[in-house]
Amino acid sequence: MALRIAPSRRTVANSACAIADGGAIRSAPPVGRAATSDRGAASGLYLASYFFGGLIGSAVLGTLFDMFGWAACVGAVAAALIVAALLAVFLRTPMAPEGLAH
Length: 102
Description:
By secondary structure, the chain is mainly α. It has helices at 9-34, 39-68, 70-90.
């Protein structure tokens, strides 16, 4: 007897939300510390963007899964991670040297 797991769109969306929730709580404090003013607004904007991205990502991945299957979902997540890594490398703000910091 083989166990077959066929996740539904709701399962994929719930998993993405659970992952997003854990990451957002750990990631938000550095945003507040990095802001020079209006730290609460910066942190709130970050969290709102984070969860909105999770919502859109879940909807897109759920649709991909329904139309093309699990392999398409894995490919889309891999592509998104590659794009995110490239953005992190190329859009990084240079840090001021220690002697020049105010």
